[in-house]
Amino acid sequence: MQTLADYYGKTLKFDKLFAYCPGCGHGVVTRLVAETIEALGIREKTISVVGIGCGGFSHHYMEIDAIEAIHGRSPATAIGYKMGLPDNIVYTYQGDGDMSAIGLAEVLHAANRGVPITCIMINNSVFGMTGGQMSPTSLVGQVTATTSKGRDEKTHGHPLLLPEMMQAMDGVAYLARESVADHKSILKAAKSIRNAFECQIKGLGFAFVEMIVPCPTGLRMNVADAYEWTGKQALNYFKPQVFINKLEQSREV
Ligand SMILES: Cc1ncc(C[n+]2csc(CCOP(=O)(O)OP(=O)(O)O)c2C)c(N)n1
């Protein structure tokens, strides 16, 4: 009989309970990343650089080396590591608060610089760990712990679209937005995460995947409602798309 260990191999510690809240999208993305690392056979040379927030737990569930960077600075840490050990595979795993608020400068310069690292932003539309405050990616009208009347674009600006901001940068080799809203989306997301690692293995440049996920606790919703809100409201603004795929171009040559 096949066991979970046969399927997941060594990367995912399948017997360790997640500290993520029930229904949290981090659980799905963490699993997808672990499956990718296992499938590509890169576990022993991969380093996870995690941000501050719930995503900072992701490496606890993997048999993998990791660095916990200071808030928002994972891409800078990852670049330093990659330049020192270019044969290793380096990825960052960061929340939307970590990456698009305090860490916005780091990730944009990393993308523009084009160093072949893989960055994954888990966008759950709030600062999850600290109690569901508005983040740069909260939707207009979204009620959060700090926007009791909903995000008002005149006061708080518009939700940040990171992949769209990176689209014009030549250093970017893979750029996509995916979601975990339903099983089809998860299959597409698995492909994008794999592509983002393969781009790095081939040294093609910077790779970025934004994952749109629910945070039932931060949204103050039950799991089913949080998934519905993500699939309808969040995806209506954050449209899933592969923006750049130089991997495909390199295969065609
Ligand atoms: C320099 C600094 N400022 C603020 C904090 C408080 N803090 C902890 S986690 C976090 C953000 C978490 O939000 P996000 O990155 O969206 O991740 P999530 O928890 O939602 O996955 C903040 C602001 C901190 N730890 N360090």
Verbal overview:
- 41% of the residues lie in helices and 18% in strands.
- It is α/β, with parallel strands linked by helices and 253 residues long.
- It has one domain: 3-Layer(aba) Sandwich (Rossmann fold).
- A hairpin with a 5-residue loop joins strand 5 (126-127) and strand 6 (133-134).
- Helix 2 packs across helix 8 and helix 4 packs across helix 5 (104-113).
- The longest helix is centred in the last third of the chain and has 19 residues, at 183-201.
- The chain is globular and about 50 Å long.
- It starts with a helix and ends with a helix.
- The protein binds thiamine diphosphate.
Short structural description:
With 253 residues, this protein is an alpha/beta fold.
